Amino acid sequence: MQISMKCSVAVHCLIFIHEAKGTVKVTSELLAKSTGCNPVVIRNIISALKKSGLITVQRGTGGAELCAEPSQITLYQIYTALEPNGLKSLIGVHSCQERPCPVAQNIAKVLQTPYSQIEDAIKSTMEKITLQSMIEEFRGLANSQN
Amino acid sequence: MQISMKCSVAVHCLIFIHEAKGTVKVTSELLAKSTGCNPVVIRNIISALKKSGLITVQRGTGGAELCAEPSQITLYQIYTALEPNGLKSLIGVHSCQERPCPVAQNIAKVLQTPYSQIEDAIKSTMEKITLQSMIEEFRGLANSQN
DNA sequence: ACAAGATGTAATTTCAACAATTACATCTAT
DNA sequence: ATAGATGTAATTGTTGAAATTACATCTTGT
Fold first, then answer.
1. Is the CB atom of residue A62 positioned under 7 angstroms from any atom of strand C?
2. What percent of chain B has pLDDT over 90?
3. What is the DSSP code (8-state) at residue B133?
4. Confidence grade of residue A58 (pLDDT, cut at 50, 70, 90)
5. pLDDT band at A16 (very low <50, low <70, confident <90, very high)
6. What is the CATH number assigned to the segment(s) A5-145?
7. DSSP calls for B16-56
8. Do A121 and B124 lie within an 8 Å CB cutoff?
9. Contact call for B107 and A15, based on CB within 8 A
10. Which among A88, A110, A114, A107 is positioned nearest to A1, based on CA atoms?
């Protein structure tokens, strides 16, 4: 599966939560309106972010807040919060090991090294991207919009 | 969508074609047996590789052969042969631009920079991986199997 | 105490993308 | 001509993601 929309929606939510701080109570209903997703989808994403310690959510009364400075939150943290299997799920290998052909029996192992290299490259790139940088980008865009 | 199984199957086919050179005629039927895919799926993959100039296929009589040295064929070439949209298709962004919220209106642009960085990282990693290196890996594994 | 408004999650439905399959036109060597 | 391939369009599963439904649980205000 792809680096799914979930990740984009999560970043959306985190920016929203940060920018709304002190002005309004951020509920799943509100985030659903902003992102265009269903409230339950939002709650699942929010729940995953919470389990990873990126945000706190006030049970019952509602309201989400960041747990850390945006400069300390990386895109990789956000991604892994949402994808328990991590980057493994990004690349697919066909299964054919039981077949009587030397290529079939070894293809999975042959692909392991290249695919790991790709995963590592994605990981280290994601680790360099912070929520802070995305918020700054957002503020620049939002200001020039007026 | 993911770096789909198609890519793994394509590498499988290319190794097969290379290793079979001079021994048997490599038909889509044969590749289908080895990979476990349907012959038509193989023909589509083979057809894409052909259009990119990586292999030649003898129309009518059958038989596929590499067009270049394995050391000159990179994983990135293989991948782009199969995915016309390239790495763009790997990362999904939710659409919410029409919504009356500054975050919603700008999120797509905010994500553009990070996602481009990820795509570039994947691309340059894939460009460093050659069919040659995968064939060597395969031969090492196949030999130690005996 | 209890109603209102939230979150947390399980279960189901919907939907889109991918792969498999069917079908058939076309090509090449014998 | 025919046998054995490739090239592709069209259709049919199949699978996984997202949306939705439903309901249990929590917190605060009254």
1. yes
2. 77
3. H
4. confident
5. very high
6. 1.10.10.10
7. HHHHHTTTS---HHHHHHHH-S-HHHHHHHHHHHHHTTSEE
8. yes
9. yes
10. A88
Sign of the alpha-carbon dihedral angle for A41, A47, A53, A56:
positive
- Looking across all nucleic acid strands, the nucleotide with the smallest C1' to CA distance from residue A32 is D19
Segment of A81-95, B2-16, B44-58 carrying the highest mean pLDDT: B44-58
Among candidate residues B41, A85, B23, the one with its CA nearest the CA of residue B12: B41
Rounded to an integer, what distance in angstroms lies between the CA atom of residue B45 and that of residue B14? Answer: 11
Residue of B12, B38, B93, B112 for testing the chain A interface, max A β-carbons within 10 Å: B12
Residues of B in contact with A142 (CB under 8 A): 102, 106
In sequence order, which ranges of A1-146 are alpha helices (DSSP H)? 5-20, 28-35, 39-51, 75-82, 102-128, 131-144
pLDDT at B146 over 80: no
Q: How far apart are the first and last CA of chain A?
A: 38
Contact (CB, 8 A) for A93 and A144: no
Q: Where are the domains of chain B?
A: 5-145
| pLDDT over threshold 80, residue A2 | no
For B50-85, give the DSSP string. Answer: HHTTSEEE-TTT--EEESS-GGG-BHHHHHHHH-TT
Give the confidence band of B29 by pLDDT, cuts at 50, 70, 90. Answer: very high
* Confidence band for A144, pLDDT divided at 50, 70 and 90: confident
